[in-house]
Structures are given as structure tokens and as C-alpha cells.
Amino acid sequence: MHLDEVLTMSARLAVLTGDSKWEDRYVDYEPKLDTAIKSALQLTNGSGVSETDLANQKLVNMEVKALKLLNQGKSNEAKLILFSKEYSAEKEKYASGMKKLEKNIEANSSADINARDRDHFKDIVFGVAAIVLLSLVWLFIVIYTKKVLKQNSELFKEVELLAATDSLTGLMNRRSFIERAEKEYSRAIRYERSFAILMIDIDKFKNINDQHGHDIGDTVLKAVSKQLSSSLRQVDIVSRWGGEEFIALLPETWSEQAATVADKIRTSVGSLMIEGNDGKLVSVSLSAGVAASSDKISLEEVIRRADNALYSAKNAGRNTVRVYEGESHTA
Q1: How far apart are CA 288 and CA 268, in angstroms?
Q2: I want to staple 245 with a disulfide (CB 3.0 to 4.6 A). Which of 208, 241, 285, 330 is the partner?
Q3: Is residue 330 pLDDT above 50, yes or no?
Q4: What tens digit of pLDDT does each residue of 88-106 get?
Q5: What's the CA gap between 188 and 194, in Å, rounded?
Q6: pTM score, two decimals?
Q7: How many angstroms separate the CA atoms of 246 and 170, rounded?
Q8: Range ranked top by mean pLDDT from 120-124, 132-136, 187-191
Q9: Model confidence pLDDT, tens digit, residues 257-275
Q10: What angle do CA 63, 66, 71 make, to 5 degrees?
Q11: CA distance 173 to 162
Q12: How buried is residue 200: exposed, middle or buried, by Cβ count under 10 Å (0-12/13-18/19+)?
């Protein structure tokens, strides 16, 4: 392995990764390169060594300066040195000098070159292995970086989903519903299309909590949420509005159609078989209010009208559906 390539690789990896082991490796190998060049001087009687030695000293000075900057916490300045045009130019000078040196060594070498001199000679000649190793290291860095970026992207999506979801029911939370509903409202206004809002409330939910405990109350909320999701279309938007109250937006739907959907949900929820802690079945029913968009009224107004219709259903004895027809439905 060519020693100057080992030094270059160690210095660059030190400033790229901040790992002290690469700096330690540089400190260990730098004297060896100096020794190798001196040995070459002896083998060639100094011919062709001065240019190589000068380039090497400049490279060492730049590398040492970069490592000092790294230790001072100035990694960006260190990188600028080791990846600069000046550094690359000195590398080219060093490589050119090495080629001349290799020719002079071949011309002046003799049979009495001992094993130690041969090792130095190999250190000078064979730089290809270091280049391959450096390429593999760069490839590893690229692959690892892509993997980290992918993991971060997946984590961000997971956090984003958690922020948009009600933790108990798995339904969309109120904030996310408003965001989706506003987009659907804008689309309906732009293309003069209709949509309906369902406001749904579990009847006497407080009594369920009081009589059976909050764990059974949570079970009821999950069961109703599941029934809502399975009863609505994929294009419909459903959310836990708060407490035991739910809301749904049905695109391309009029009041009468929405009322039919709400009544089917009411019937299916009424048939739920939920067992309490005492072994007895918990009776579950719900009331619903329906309002549809008209005359370009605001989204908030449609929701308010559906809420008024819900109160009307509550006042009518619960376990029923009411469609908004005017302010007479306000409780």
C-alpha cells in the first residue's frame, strides 16, 4: 500500500468522520513515509528525490494543519484544506516525482538491496491498493448516508401519522379533520358540488363510564370508531371530535343521503355486543345530526348546523337522527 495514499486517506477520514483513530493512524504512518523517502535518496544518490520530498513536505504541512483545525473544532476549514485545488496540485507533483523516482531506483538498484529496502520500495511503488481502499470507504459512506436518510424519512412519516391520529380510537384527530375538511370544502365551492356533515354522539356515555368503568368506556369508543370506519366510504372523512363525540364529512352527498347513512350507523352501533366487567352486556346507542352545504355557507356554519341537529336528536329522546332544517333545531 502506498504510504502517501494511506496518509491522505487517514487525514481525510479524520476530518470527514471526526474519528480520532484516523488521526492516530496518520501520526503513526507519517514518520514511515519520511524514512522511505530517505532510503530512496540513498538508493538513487539523490536523483529525482528533491521534487518528491518537497511535495511531500507541503502535503504533510497541509495535513497537519488540517488536523490541528479539526482538534480546534473547525472541521469545515479542515475539509477545505484537504479537498482544495492546492492540495490536489501537490498530490500531482508528488505522483510525478514518484514516477521519476521509481525509474531511478530501477536503474540504480542492485542485488545487494536488503529486505528492508525492498519493503520501502514496495511502499513507494504500490499505491493502487490504497486508492481502491479509499474508494470502498467512500462507497460505504454513501450507502450508510442513504440508509440514515431513509430511516429518518420513515421516522418523520411515523411521527407525522401519530400527530394526526387520535391515540385511543385510531381515527383522525380534530386538527387533522379540520385540515382535510377545509380542502374538501374548497373543492366543493370551486366545482359547485355538495357535501354533508354528520355530528354523532354516544348516548349517556357518562353513565357507561360511571356504571362500568373507564376501561369499558374506552372499549365502547373503540367499537363505535370501528363501526364508523367500516360504514363509511374511503372518500369520507371521519374523526373523533372530542370525548364521546364524532364527526364525518361525506363528499358528493345531500342531506337525505347523509341521513340514511347516519341511520345505518345508528342501527349497527345499537347491535354491538360489548360485555361489561360484571359479565352483563353494555347497551350502546347514539344520536346524530346531519347538515349539508348550501349557498356557499362556510364550513364552520355547516358544522354548527349539524351540531344543532344533533342537539335536536338528543331532545327528541336520543337514539335517533335529525336533519338540520332551521334554527328551531337548536337546543
Answers
A1: 13
A2: 241
A3: no
A4: 887 787 777 777 766 776 6
A5: 6
A6: 0.53
A7: 12
A8: 187-191
A9: 999 999 999 999 999 989 8
A10: 125
A11: 10
A12: buried
Q: Please give the positions annotated as active site.
A: 244
Question: Which set of grid coordinates corresponds to residue 141?
Answer: 459512506
Query: If you ran DSSP here, which 8-state letter would residue 198 be given?
Result: E
User: What's at 244, amino acid-wise?
Assistant: E
Residue type, 246: F
CA distances to 98, 191, 192, 219 from 187, rounded to whole Å, are 72, 6, 8, 36
User: Residues near 45 by Cβ (< 8 Å), separated by ≥ 6?
Assistant: 108
Distance CA 152, CA 49 (A): 51
Q: How far, CA to CA in Å, does 34 sit from each of 29, 31, 40, 99, 274?
A: 9, 5, 10, 17, 83
Rounded distance, CA 244 to CA 307, Å?
Answer: 14
Alpha-carbon distance of 238 to 91, in angstroms, equals: 66
Q: How far is CA 76 from the centre of its chain?
A: 25
Q: CA–CA separation, 60 vs 255, rounded Å?
A: 81
Per DSSP, helices labelled H in 45-114 are: 49-71, 75-82, 85-108
Residue 208 and residue 290: Cα distance in Å, rounded?
25
